[in-house]
């Protein structure tokens, strides 16, 4: 029997993760009091294989009941029940944005600042996070991308021991992505915007790609960036980082940065890394380009 405990920060995507697990055939239970864990596991075991995949959410919504979690986990081990912990994390900025968009209050700060509740929750979950088998940082993941990560882990059996790399293109005129770990300015490259036949296209279009990649400095830059990323990623993993954001910026975020980001994405993906791509500002200058 596969027994998965889903936990993590409020707003980090536990509900979405449970929907994905349910789609994969898991029997799902939300907000089970930790003290009931051993008894619930025993009940599932007694079905003699009728329930062979179980996922349940345990988090700080349980209030004082949450404090029973470690005693219950120890009891599961004593009774030889195998379990695994999936921990969902996210950056403070993204969590705050999600709470504001949903107009929900944080469970630990119903009448106070959301950030205070997040900080308190991080402290309460520190030990549980250290015991997690898989940690997914959902800061830059769409629901579809989160589902893909769930499939990687629970269907394809690829234990997530590395890092998710987000490759982002952006325009400096719209600001640097706040969650960037590494930022590269590609405005030194020749700008397709000033070539009339390319102005209205984007870095996804073949003529723009060919123009940007025709220059030796572009190819040399790409080689050096990919080489640097490959050098840094193992050290980020060693330090416990689960999500790395590499951002490439040009003036408007529509031409050069898109080409470079796509090439870095393909190179890292080819090298076996879990990579997602986001062209943040690719549509911002469409109307201006049409003039």
From TrEMBL:
Entry binding sites for GTP: 59-62
Residue ranges constituting the RapZ-like N-terminal domain according to the UniProt record: 1-154
Entry annotated with the keyword Signal: no
Gene3D superfamilies in the record: P-loop containing nucleotide triphosphate hydrolases
Pfam families, per the entry: PapZ_C (PF22740), RapZ-like_N (PF03668)
Positions of the RapZ C-terminal domain: 164-282
Residues forming coiled coils: none
GO function terms (MF aspect): ATP binding; GTP binding
Binding site for ATP: 8-15
Sorted UniProt keywords: ATP-binding, GTP-binding, Nucleotide-binding
SUPFAM superfamilies referenced in this protein's UniProt entry, alphabetically: P-loop containing nucleoside triphosphate hydrolases
Protein name: GlmZ(SRNA)-inactivating NTPase
Organism: Oxobacter pfennigii
């Amino acid at each position: 029997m596969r027994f998965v405990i889903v936990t993590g920060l409020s707003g980090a995507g536990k509900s979405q993760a449970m929907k994905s697990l349910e789609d994969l055939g898991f029997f799902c239970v939300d907000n089970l009091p930790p003290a009931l864990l051993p008894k619930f596991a025993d009940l599932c075991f007694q079905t003699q294989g009728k329930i062979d995949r179980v996922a349940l959410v345990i988090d700080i919504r349980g209030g004082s009941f949450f404090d029973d979690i470690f005693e219950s986990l120890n009891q599961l081990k004593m009774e030889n029940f195998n379990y695994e912990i999936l921990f969902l994390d996210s950056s403070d900025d993204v969590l705050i944005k999600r709470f504001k968009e949903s107009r929900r209050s944080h469970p630990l700060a119903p009448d106070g600042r959301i950030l205070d509740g997040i900080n308190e929750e991080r402290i309460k979950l520190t030990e549980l996070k250290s015991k997690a088998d898989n940690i997914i940082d959902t800061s830059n993941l769409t629901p579809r991308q989160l589902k893909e990560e769930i499939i990687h882990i629970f269907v394809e059996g690829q234990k997530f021991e590395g890092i998710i790399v987000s490759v982002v293109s952006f325009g400096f005129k719209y600001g640097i992505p706040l969650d960037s770990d590494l930022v590269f300015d590609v405005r030194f490259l020749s700008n397709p915007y000033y070539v009339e036949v390319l102005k209205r296209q984007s870095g996804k279009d073949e003529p723009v790609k060919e123009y940007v990649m025709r220059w030796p400095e572009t190819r040399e830059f790409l080689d050096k960036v990919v080489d640097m990323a490959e050098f840094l990623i193992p050290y980020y993993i060693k330090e416990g980082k689960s999500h790395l954001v590499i951002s490439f910026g040009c003036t408007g975020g529509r031409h050069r940065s898109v080409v470079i980001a796509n090439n870095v994405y393909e190179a890292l993906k080819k090298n076996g890394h879990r990579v997602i791509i986001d062209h943040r500002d690719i549509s911002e200058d469409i109307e201006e380009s049409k003039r």
